[in-house]
Amino acid sequence: MNPSVKRLLDQTPEQLSQLTGRRLLEAIRAAEGRTVVTETVVDSMPLVDGCANPELAAAFGADLLLLNRYNVDQPRVSGFPSREEAIPSGEMWEESGLGPLLPLMGWGVTPGKVTEFIGRPTGINLEPVPTDLPQSVVATGRRAGVAQAEQALEQGARFLVLTGNPGTGVTWEAIARQVEELRNVFGPEVPLMAGKMHGAGTWHNDGQWLEERILERLAQAGANVLLLPQPGTVPGVRGEEMAHWIERIHRLGMQAMLTIGTSQEGAQASLLERWAVDGKSLGGDLFHIGDAGFAGMAPPENILSFSTALKGKRHTYRRMAQSRLR
């Protein structure tokens, strides 16, 4: 660990907005398990009118923002004002009754703009789905590939997460292949986070969740952060196994992100608090809370409880309250 790196939890919104590449990863490592990653769905109308879900997540303690279902070919983050030139035209919008909502649907808003608006490093999911999966399920602009990653980085994404949404058929092997391809193209500076929050339709509690060879393959491919489900979210994933995997992850030079991506982000706050402390005891570096609460995000009070359990009130309230101009 570089002692000159300022811990992520101590950085102001302006400083966070400038974090990129290895500096971002080093700031996370320096925070010693006190980094909250909050995921939101970009094409859901926001939970609260007049406020985009990423803004709400940041206001309740999120350190990093992750955009799910973001399409690099059609940038959009609902709840932010649309850029007029990016608003799609066509009679279908008026016929559907959605015409008046177009200016509020965030057309043309990119991850870079979200970082600029809120002062939180913002990344996106890219999905290494099977090639025969219909476009209606996962559009080209959401799929993992060099072209999509290049567009995402040009649009200001500070990190890329290679994972799969429910039922998409994403496998560990496909994730590892994509990490290797992107690392070979983009070099060592792009933060690549990779793994599975749930089965994504390819695992049915009939075998080990993560094989040692896959863990090592991801490290060799160049993953910086490995995603694993918080024990208690996926059937059969136990704490003793997770502790072993996280020890191996650290020995291989990666960091571990423990994820809650099974709609349990919408459970009672006390469960989130327990998982936060349990996850820390297992050695987690980053802690993810998913988007399946209401309207494409976890309940804000759960983000607050999760963040407070991980960071305490002092650091959480500072993160919530500091001005974007600092």
Describe the structure.
This is DUF7916 domain-containing protein. Residues 9-326 form the DUF7916 domain. It comes from Desmospora activa DSM 45169. This protein is an alpha/beta fold. It folds into 2 domains: 8-75 and 110-321, TIM Barrel; 83-108, no CATH class. 36% of the residues lie in helices and 12% in strands. The protein has helices at residues 13-17, 21-30, 53-59, 91-95, 111-118, 146-154, 172-186, 212-221, 239-251, 269-282, 300-321; strands at 35-41, 64-68, 122-126, 160-162, 192-195, 225-229, 255-260, 286-289. It has an 8-stranded parallel beta barrel, surrounded by 6 helices. The mean pLDDT is 93.
Quote the beta fraction: 5-15%
Largest sheet: 8 strands, parallel, barrel
Count the DSSP helices. 11
Indicate the overall shape. Answer: globular
> What is the total number of structural domains?
2
Highlighted features:
326 residues; alpha/beta; TIM Barrel; 2 domains; 8-stranded parallel beta barrel; globular
Question: Could you give a short description of this structure?
Answer:
By secondary structure, this protein is of the alpha/beta class. It has helices spanning 13-17, 21-30, 53-59, 91-95, 111-118, 146-154, 172-186, 212-221, 239-251, 269-282, 300-321, and strands at residues 35-41, 64-68, 122-126, 160-162, 192-195, 225-229, 255-260, 286-289.
